[in-house]
């Protein structure tokens, strides 16, 4: 029995306090996004940070990223450089063996601050595009599990052919049916963006933001919208 293809639509609404975006399949809401007016999310931003305190008991560190609150970095989110690895993988499992107070570190926000808690960080940088995600400090290739097996294999073959010399890539759901030349263009854009980020990293002299992620609406359109959508509905009385 063939699975019925449900129509997809996006509803965008805003008031003076927040922006709301819903993605529907048929009559069911499958994704829901909220963003506060005048306060953009930090998630996805990349910073040159400075280690403030190392907490061996928590296996974590506080990082000054130049925002209102110091950010929090767990050891599980710390990229271990090749020189600290052996054949069995990363040698140090304790954060004080990798990070020291005053040390500079490139980080990315993965969770916004909540009340008294600062942002959560990772050093596993990821740069999303329309069809691909570039992982500069990884060497792997991944393909969205939302695609069927045949399409995943097709895209995996293309990914192996176009993979950058340094770094790994993840093929996104939006790449369904996309040809290799289109994926190459997306990868070229992402590697060019990473080159610009690296040049800026070499120039900063303290805690500073070096990459700003898109605003909520632009990010949702980039990450979610595809040819499968029949309609985008916006609130006629408000501007997003």
TrEMBL record:
SMART domains: S1. Keywords: Hydrolase, Magnesium, Metal-binding, RNA-binding. Its cofactor is Mg(2+). Pfam families: RNase_E_G. GO terms for cellular component: cytoplasm. Residues 44-124 form the S1 motif domain. InterPro entries: NA-bd_OB-fold, RNA-bd_AU-1/RNase_E/G, RNase_E/G, S1_domain. Transmembrane segments: none annotated. Coiled coil: none annotated. SUPFAM superfamilies: Nucleic acid-binding proteins (SSF50249). One of its GO terms (molecular function) is RNA nuclease activity. One of its GO terms (biological process) is rRNA processing. This is Ribonuclease G. It comes from Candidatus Hakubella thermalkaliphila.
């Amino acid at each position: 029995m063939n699975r019925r293809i449900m129509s997809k639509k996006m509803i965008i609404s805003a008031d003076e306090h927040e922006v709301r975006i819903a993605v529907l399949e048929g009559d069911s809401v499958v994704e829901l996004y909220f963003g506060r007016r005048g306060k953009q999310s930090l998630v996805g931003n990349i910073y040159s940070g400075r280690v403030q305190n190392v907490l061996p008991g928590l296996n974590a560190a506080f990082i000054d990223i130049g925002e209102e609150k110091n950010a929090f970095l767990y050891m599980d989110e710390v990229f271990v450089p090749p020189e600290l690895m052996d054949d069995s993988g990363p040698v140090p499992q304790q954060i004080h063996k990798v990070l020291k107070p005053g040390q500079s570190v490139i980080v990315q926000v993965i969770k916004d601050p909540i009340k008294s808690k600062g942002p959560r960080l990772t050093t596993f940088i990821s740069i999303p595009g329309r069809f691909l995600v570039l992982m500069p400090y990884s060497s792997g290739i991944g393909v969205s599990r939302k695609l069927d097996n045949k399409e995943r294999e097709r895209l995996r073959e293309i990914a192996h052919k176009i993979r950058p010399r340094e770094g790994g890539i993840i093929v996104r759901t939006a790449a369904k049916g996309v040809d290799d030349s289109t994926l190459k263009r997306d990868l070229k854009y992402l590697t060019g963006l990473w080159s610009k980020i690296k040049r800026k990293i070499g120039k900063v002299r303290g805690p500073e933001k070096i990459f700003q992620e898109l605003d909520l609406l632009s990010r949702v359109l980039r990450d979610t919208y595809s040819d499968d959508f029949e309609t985008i509905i916006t609130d006629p009385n408000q501007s997003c």
